[in-house]
Amino acid sequence: MLTHYLVGEDVQITFHWCGFFQSKELWQHEERRNPDYELMIGVEGVMHLEIEGKAVDLVPGMLLIIPPKAHFFGRKKSAQVRFYWLHFSTTNLKTVSSLDKRATWCLPLASQELLMDNEIALLQQLQTVKQQAYADNPLLNAYARTLLLSINEKQRALAMPKTTTHYLIEHVKNFLQSNYQNTLSVSAVANYFGYNQAYLSHLFAKEVGQSMTSYLIGIRLEAARQQLLTSVDSIEAVSNACGFEDSKYFSRVFSKQYGKSPRAYRQEKGQINQM
């Protein structure tokens, strides 16, 4: 069932309730059949579920939509589980087993391929609005509809013929380019985007052709190369400014990349006003 999609036309969304769950001890989801749809987005930890007889693990960054009357429960206890949830009902949506690119609405019942940054922000806003309005307020319905439309558009974009890299990777590359000066790790980047570290590392290497760490070092080395030629900063200062915590390590990888030490490279190329 969880490889299926919700498709339809002229879809209406009614908000029921939303929240953020965080376990403080070992916990597993109670057995349940909801009268409405429940959407979940994993943030931390792994929630082990069984849905209609199928084992499903909600991991960080994963989207899960459980249809009405589906039987589900926690398979086993988990520690430090955090996830956002939303209950809603809808008209004109039906469950199909394959992606229908012609449908105006097409929501996956489960996906780890969609970046859930905007959706988490919308859920946070929904929680704020919920505290200030009645449950049947049209504003709540509008927020819920916007959230699902956002997921719908990302799913449609993902289904388009692939001519470029996975759109998530472009976000990651832009993030690395904007934050290379800071201390970064693959796990920190994965947490920022709400994805499992192993999944994001594999996807990045597959799409880019090199590991995320190698790609980040390349960005830092190019920034350092330019700074060496356009400033009088010391080698150590250039190293620190470009995200290298160890100037000796910086000199070693710089020499490997450009065939000369940072000092020799600067002396050979001379001072340039700008690049």
Automatic annotation (TrEMBL):
<dbReference type="InterPro" id="IPR018062">
    <property type="entry name" value="HTH_AraC-typ_CS"/>
</dbReference>
<dbReference type="InterPro" id="IPR020449">
    <property type="entry name" value="Tscrpt_reg_AraC-type_HTH"/>
</dbReference>
<keyword id="KW-0238">DNA-binding</keyword>
<protein>
    <submittedName>
        <fullName>AraC family transcriptional regulator</fullName>
    </submittedName>
</protein>
<keyword id="KW-0804">Transcription</keyword>
<keyword id="KW-0805">Transcription regulation</keyword>
<dbReference type="InterPro" id="IPR037923">
    <property type="entry name" value="HTH-like"/>
</dbReference>
<dbReference type="InterPro" id="IPR003313">
    <property type="entry name" value="AraC-bd"/>
</dbReference>
<feature type="domain" description="HTH araC/xylS-type">
    <location>
        <begin position="170"/>
        <end position="268"/>
    </location>
</feature>
<dbReference type="Pfam" id="PF12833">
    <property type="entry name" value="HTH_18"/>
</dbReference>
<dbReference type="Pfam" id="PF02311">
    <property type="entry name" value="AraC_binding"/>
</dbReference>
<dbReference type="InterPro" id="IPR018060">
    <property type="entry name" value="HTH_AraC"/>
</dbReference>
<dbReference type="InterPro" id="IPR009057">
    <property type="entry name" value="Homeodomain-like_sf"/>
</dbReference>
